[in-house]
Amino acid sequence: MKNDYRILLTDICKKHGIEYVGVVSPGPYTDLKIYLEQRIAEGKFTGLEEKDIIKRTDPKETMSEAGSVAVCLFPYYSKAADRAVGNISIHSRVPDYHKIIIEKLNKIGEDLKKEIPDFRYSSYTDTGPLADRYLAQRAGLGYRGLSSNLINDKYGSYVFIGYMINNYPFTPDAPNNKKCLQCGQCIRSCPGKAISENYGMDPKRCLSYITQKKGELSEQETKLMSVQGMVYGCDICQEVCPLNSGLPDTPIGEFKENLISGIDESELGKMSSWEFKKRYGDRTFAWRGLGVLKRNLEIASKDK
Ligand code: B12
Ligand code: SF4
Ligand code: SF4
């Protein structure tokens, strides 16, 4: 029956428009724990990650009866989102992915519940306890680029990752150990010099992080934001990656509608927090609040 349920998982995902689903064992992931401990010792963390390292590497800390983790990819690239010139990254031009993904995962979970006796699950994306890219790589859905982005053969790196910790022991998939082209384009083009050889990303140098960082920015950070003119996120390491050329549009309808390409200073300058929430509450950048975005807009629109 076990293998049949694995097929059922794929079929139910397909029914909900999810083409890529894979399974990871319930851990603990000792290799990841060692890797994360080393990165933390080197100061390579932003504070946006889950702080409890045991929780990050052991699904059973979140669900004691975890039998497996089902991982799904959610492509979000479309030519329409990419075409317009704007001051926010593509992942924030689409409506907030967190809500869309959790809703889809919950629909999949509810369908599984109808078929698998006593099935229990919990859905996450981005803000969950585990390391999303690690899971997707281990589930065989994509491989690691030097840029540290997870790259899928069909949809490139413009894919969000979501997962479901659940109590059923679905058979795990083989990891995807493919290597990217190692061409170094992302290293040479990164404006913050955040990417180095051997996957040695320094997240604190990443412009995407700087646009999300609260408080005062250093002179160097301010200059970086002003030169790039970005108010939220950064896509350069994805734009220059040859593995992202000629991508198909996302099949997910929600990521093709209601697109925006930027935030306007004259509009935001006059807005109250309430108005901001009403206008942009369904965007991924809204969580950082009006203050950080106003600061960024002021810096990004400075004369270069
Ligand atoms: C904190 C965070 C950030 C930080 C730090 C990013 C970083 N590189 O560490 C900042 C703000 C800079 C950031 C930026 C972006 N982020 Co972000 N971020 C996260 C978050 C919340 C945690 C990441 C984390 O734990 N980092 C620590 C490092 C060590 O882990 P990692 O880079 O995620 O994954 C590495 C390990 O898993 C390891 N690994 C992989 N396989 C294996 C196997 C073994 C055996 C071992 C030991 C290790 C290993 O290699 C991976 C890559 O180096 C995740 C969601 C989540 N909860 O996981 C989203 C997430 C990584 N972000 C995402 C996105 C979309 C972005 C941006 C593209 C947004 C943008 N356009 O501005 C950029 C990309 C920047 C970049 N080049 O990485 C997506 C990535 C999708 C993808 N295809 O890769 C995620 C997964 C959110 C989601 N659920 O979709 N992000
Ligand atoms: S998102 Fe931008 S700043 Fe961050 S690693 Fe990629 S190119 Fe560098
Ligand atoms: S730009 Fe080149 S080195 Fe960087 S992730 Fe893409 S293929 Fe790998």
Outline:
This protein is an alpha+beta fold and 304 residues long. It folds into two domains: 2-166, no CATH class; 185-246 and 259-300, no CATH class.
Into how many domains do the coordinates divide? 2
Largest sheet: 4 strands, antiparallel
SS class = alpha+beta
Number of helices: 13
How would you name the oligomeric state of the polypeptide chains in this document? single chain
* Spatial ordering of strands, largest sheet: 1-2-6-3
Distinct small-molecule ligands in the complex: cobalamin, iron/sulfur cluster
Mean pLDDT: 95
Using only CA atoms, what is the Rg?
20 Å
Can you tell me about this structure?
The chain is an alpha+beta fold. It folds into two domains: 2-166, no CATH class; 185-246 and 259-300, no CATH class. The protein has helices at residues 2-15, 30-41, 53-57, 79-83, 97-115, 132-138, 185-189, 207-212, 219-228, 236-239, 265-269, 273-280, 289-300; strands at 21-24, 68-75, 121-125, 143-144, 150-151, 159-166. The chain has a four-stranded antiparallel β-sheet with strand order 1-2-6-3, with helices on both faces. A two-stranded antiparallel ribbon has the order 4-5. The longest helix is centred in the middle third of the chain and has 19 residues, at 97-115. The protein is globular, with a radius of gyration of 20 Å. The model has no long low-confidence stretch (mean pLDDT 95). Residues 147, 190-192, 194-195, 206-208, 234, 236-237 line the site of one iron/sulfur cluster.
